[in-house]
Amino acid sequence: MVNNLVALVFKKGALLLTCGALLFAGSAMLFQQAKVTFFDGGESERTKPAPLNVTLLHGQASDIQGAFPVDSVDNYTIERGGKDAFSLLLAYYKDDQNQQRRAVLFPKGKQEARALPSPTGLRQAIWQDAAKAISENTPKDALILSWWDDGQRIHFLSGRDAWVNKPAEQTFVSPIWKHLQDNLLLASDSERNQLSTMARWLTMDSDKALAEIKQTLGTSRPIYLLVTNDLLMRLGEIVDYGGKPLAFSSKTVQAHDNLHGDIAQIKQWAYEEGDGNYLVQKEDLAYHVWATAKGSGAGKNALVVRLLPFVDSLKKLPEKVHLVYQSHWGGYLSIYKLELD
Question: Residue 212 and residue 204: Cα distance in Å, rounded?
Fold first, then answer.
């Protein structure tokens, strides 16, 4: 069962040392470009980068493998300043009840003469591995909590139910989501309320969030929760849905050959600018570092912080929360089983 995966994927000692510093080299969707074009929608005129150019092409449905047959696929290529930023796929499919569905996916990326896969190719591989773990090691009646686009990938790739899987108007502040808006299925009023509830749970005290999850969803079916490090770049959107603002310091640090020296530098910065609780993403020749703010108190205990690979969070999970799967490359994606009964 799922708990058998823990011994294979959760090696606390090594994780405490690096805290994800080896997260898939090659970057998470070219972090800086992704942050301002895909996740944030409110740049000032002074800092606003070059306009986006989004090209929509029809992809090959046969190239995508999931738990359901694909009817068609849209391929969105995003450029900024004449250079490729990243790409997204939007798969159209029907579920077991013959209902129309959509899923935002990551393409495999171009096959180039390079030592490492492309950023989107790495994400596609991470999600394929996670979907296999979900489908093979969770019961068919499992309900998985996540943010909405992760929910789409969960359902399409593994066939499991995701509690939220459609966006509402708050999402389309982002310039990228605006380009997908006409082709996405939008949340109904009840689904919009679930988005708001999920946003609150992610950003509220973990113990209170777990109590509310139990009260809201009950214990009649197994409940899991999936998080990725990208949630740190989605906090503006999550707050727009009713989540609580969380304070972080962030910095990009050049990577060197001496990993221990890099970590020592990051730790020093985390204590100077924050409270010493940090998370690291490796992107090409740099680390992007997040640290919870000094005196953050309740923010440090927020559910999303407790479940992402911050160094303090790795020391002890909330009670009744068990890690059952974590991706390679520094724990970018984690799945937890909630023991709420």
Answer: 10
**What is the Rg, in whole angstroms, of the alpha carbon atoms belonging to the chain?**
19
**Is 112 a domain residue?**
no
**266, 289 Cβ separation under 8 angstroms:** yes
Q: Are 334 and 126 in contact (CB under 8 A)?
A: no
**Dihedral, 38, 42, 44, 47 alpha carbons, nearest 10:** -20
The tally of domains found in the chain comes to: 1
pLDDT at 83: 72
In whole angstroms, what is the distance from residue 69 CA to residue 47 CA? 43
pLDDT in tens, 79-117: 877 776 678 999 999 999 999 999 999 988 655 444 555
Per-residue tokens: 304:
């999303």
Hey, what are 259's tokens?
Answer: 């990993």
Query: Which pair of structure tokens corresponds to residue 40?
Result: 């944030």
**In angstroms, rounded to a whole number, what is the distance separating the alpha carbons of residues 23 and 25?**
6
Q: Does position 232 have pLDDT exceeding 80, yes or no?
A: yes
Residue 183, by phi and psi: left (phi above 0), alpha (psi -120 to 50) or beta?
alpha
The answer to the question of residue 320 being in a domain is yes
Question: pLDDT for 136-162, tens place per residue?
Answer: 889 999 999 999 999 999 999 999 999
How far is the C-alpha of 70 from the C-alpha of 93, rounded, in Å? 5
- The whole domain housing 328 covers 2-46+119-338
The encoded tokens of residue 159 equal 């066939």
Distance CA 260, CA 311 (A): 15
- Report the candidate in 130, 85, 93, 88 with the shortest Cα–Cα distance to residue 107: 88
Place of tokens 């740099």: 286
